[in-house]
Amino acid sequence: MNERPAKELPLDLVRLTWTLHRALRQRQTPPSGEAARPLAQVEVLRLIDSRPGTSVREIAQTLGMQPNNVSTLVTRLHRDGFLERRQNPQDRRFVELHPTGKMIAAGGEVNDSLQKEIGSVLAELSPEAVERITAAVPDLWDLAAALAPPR
Q1: The whole model's pTM is what?
Q2: In this predicted structure, what is the pLDDT of residue 151?
Q3: Reported confidence tier of residue 108, pLDDT bands at 50, 70, 90
Q4: Lower CB density within 10 Å: C or N end of the chain?
Protein backbone atom coordinates (compact mmCIF):
# COMPACT_ATOMS: atom_id res chain seq x y z
CA MET A 1 0.00 0.00 0.00
CA ASN A 2 1.21 3.52 -0.77
CA GLU A 3 2.10 5.11 2.56
CA ARG A 4 1.74 8.89 2.45
CA PRO A 5 3.01 11.18 5.17
CA ALA A 6 0.27 12.01 7.70
CA LYS A 7 0.94 15.73 7.23
CA GLU A 8 -0.28 15.43 3.61
CA LEU A 9 -3.60 13.85 4.60
CA PRO A 10 -5.56 17.10 5.18
CA LEU A 11 -4.58 18.51 1.77
CA ASP A 12 -5.21 15.13 0.10
CA LEU A 13 -8.70 15.05 1.63
CA VAL A 14 -9.43 18.61 0.49
CA ARG A 15 -8.38 17.81 -3.07
CA LEU A 16 -10.20 14.48 -3.07
CA THR A 17 -13.42 15.98 -1.73
CA TRP A 18 -13.51 18.75 -4.33
CA THR A 19 -12.62 16.31 -7.10
CA LEU A 20 -15.37 13.88 -6.07
CA HIS A 21 -17.85 16.73 -5.75
CA ARG A 22 -17.02 18.01 -9.23
CA ALA A 23 -17.14 14.49 -10.72
CA LEU A 24 -20.55 13.81 -9.17
CA ARG A 25 -21.92 17.15 -10.36
CA GLN A 26 -20.70 16.40 -13.89
CA ARG A 27 -22.30 12.95 -13.92
CA GLN A 28 -25.52 14.09 -12.30
CA THR A 29 -28.45 14.41 -14.65
CA PRO A 30 -31.53 16.44 -13.75
CA PRO A 31 -34.73 14.58 -12.95
CA SER A 32 -37.14 13.85 -15.78
CA GLY A 33 -38.78 16.99 -17.12
CA GLU A 34 -36.49 19.31 -15.13
CA ALA A 35 -33.61 21.53 -16.13
CA ALA A 36 -30.33 21.39 -14.26
CA ARG A 37 -30.45 23.60 -11.17
CA PRO A 38 -27.69 25.88 -9.90
CA LEU A 39 -25.50 24.39 -7.19
CA ALA A 40 -26.90 26.72 -4.51
CA GLN A 41 -30.43 25.43 -5.16
CA VAL A 42 -29.23 21.83 -5.08
CA GLU A 43 -27.49 22.43 -1.75
CA VAL A 44 -30.65 23.94 -0.27
CA LEU A 45 -32.75 21.03 -1.56
CA ARG A 46 -30.33 18.43 -0.20
CA LEU A 47 -30.23 20.15 3.18
CA ILE A 48 -34.03 20.33 3.45
CA ASP A 49 -34.22 16.68 2.38
CA SER A 50 -31.83 15.68 5.18
CA ARG A 51 -33.39 18.04 7.75
CA PRO A 52 -37.11 18.51 7.11
CA GLY A 53 -38.48 21.38 9.15
CA THR A 54 -35.33 23.47 8.97
CA SER A 55 -35.59 27.25 8.64
CA VAL A 56 -34.10 29.79 6.26
CA ARG A 57 -31.84 31.00 9.09
CA GLU A 58 -30.60 27.47 9.80
CA ILE A 59 -29.92 26.86 6.10
CA ALA A 60 -27.99 30.12 5.86
CA GLN A 61 -25.87 29.21 8.87
CA THR A 62 -25.22 25.66 7.70
CA LEU A 63 -24.32 26.64 4.13
CA GLY A 64 -22.48 29.84 5.07
CA MET A 65 -24.83 31.99 2.98
CA GLN A 66 -26.64 35.25 3.60
CA PRO A 67 -30.23 34.73 4.83
CA ASN A 68 -31.63 37.01 2.11
CA ASN A 69 -29.93 34.86 -0.57
CA VAL A 70 -31.35 31.70 0.97
CA SER A 71 -34.77 33.33 1.14
CA THR A 72 -34.58 34.06 -2.60
CA LEU A 73 -33.59 30.44 -3.31
CA VAL A 74 -36.40 29.14 -1.10
CA THR A 75 -38.94 31.37 -2.86
CA ARG A 76 -37.90 29.98 -6.24
CA LEU A 77 -37.90 26.36 -5.03
CA HIS A 78 -41.31 26.84 -3.42
CA ARG A 79 -42.66 28.38 -6.62
CA ASP A 80 -41.29 25.42 -8.59
CA GLY A 81 -43.06 22.98 -6.26
CA PHE A 82 -40.01 21.44 -4.57
CA LEU A 83 -40.69 22.54 -1.03
CA GLU A 84 -43.47 23.73 1.16
CA ARG A 85 -43.50 26.28 3.92
CA ARG A 86 -45.26 25.44 7.18
CA GLN A 87 -45.70 27.58 10.23
CA ASN A 88 -43.94 26.22 13.28
CA PRO A 89 -46.70 24.82 15.54
CA GLN A 90 -44.99 26.11 18.71
CA ASP A 91 -44.18 29.58 17.37
CA ARG A 92 -46.22 30.71 14.39
CA ARG A 93 -43.73 33.49 13.61
CA PHE A 94 -41.28 30.88 12.31
CA VAL A 95 -41.59 28.98 9.05
CA GLU A 96 -40.35 25.43 8.60
CA LEU A 97 -39.34 24.13 5.19
CA HIS A 98 -40.36 20.62 4.12
CA PRO A 99 -39.81 18.60 0.94
CA THR A 100 -42.79 18.03 -1.32
CA GLY A 101 -43.61 14.78 -3.07
CA LYS A 102 -42.13 16.31 -6.22
CA MET A 103 -38.85 17.01 -4.44
CA ILE A 104 -38.71 13.54 -2.90
CA ALA A 105 -39.34 11.89 -6.28
CA ALA A 106 -36.82 14.10 -8.08
CA GLY A 107 -34.19 13.56 -5.39
CA GLY A 108 -34.75 9.81 -5.54
CA GLU A 109 -34.31 9.85 -9.30
CA VAL A 110 -31.06 11.83 -9.05
CA ASN A 111 -29.76 9.60 -6.23
CA ASP A 112 -30.62 6.43 -8.17
CA SER A 113 -28.81 7.74 -11.24
CA LEU A 114 -25.70 8.68 -9.25
CA GLN A 115 -25.79 5.38 -7.37
CA LYS A 116 -25.80 3.50 -10.69
CA GLU A 117 -22.93 5.63 -12.00
CA ILE A 118 -20.84 5.01 -8.90
CA GLY A 119 -21.76 1.32 -8.89
CA SER A 120 -20.59 0.87 -12.47
CA VAL A 121 -17.31 2.63 -11.71
CA LEU A 122 -16.78 0.58 -8.55
CA ALA A 123 -17.34 -2.58 -10.61
CA GLU A 124 -14.34 -1.60 -12.74
CA LEU A 125 -12.04 -1.25 -9.72
CA SER A 126 -10.17 -4.13 -8.15
CA PRO A 127 -11.91 -5.98 -5.32
CA GLU A 128 -9.12 -4.81 -3.02
CA ALA A 129 -9.76 -1.18 -3.89
CA VAL A 130 -13.49 -1.59 -3.27
CA GLU A 131 -12.74 -3.25 0.06
CA ARG A 132 -10.47 -0.34 1.13
CA ILE A 133 -13.07 2.24 0.06
CA THR A 134 -15.79 0.34 1.92
CA ALA A 135 -13.65 0.13 5.04
CA ALA A 136 -12.99 3.90 4.95
CA VAL A 137 -16.63 4.98 4.68
CA PRO A 138 -17.51 4.92 8.42
CA ASP A 139 -14.40 6.92 9.27
CA LEU A 140 -15.15 9.43 6.52
CA TRP A 141 -18.68 9.88 7.96
CA ASP A 142 -17.09 10.50 11.37
CA LEU A 143 -14.75 13.07 9.81
CA ALA A 144 -17.68 14.81 8.09
CA ALA A 145 -19.64 14.93 11.35
CA ALA A 146 -16.63 16.34 13.21
CA LEU A 147 -16.10 19.03 10.55
CA ALA A 148 -19.76 20.06 10.41
CA PRO A 149 -20.64 23.31 12.16
CA PRO A 150 -22.60 22.90 15.37
CA ARG A 151 -26.39 22.97 14.91
Answers
A1: 0.79
A2: 65
A3: very high
A4: N
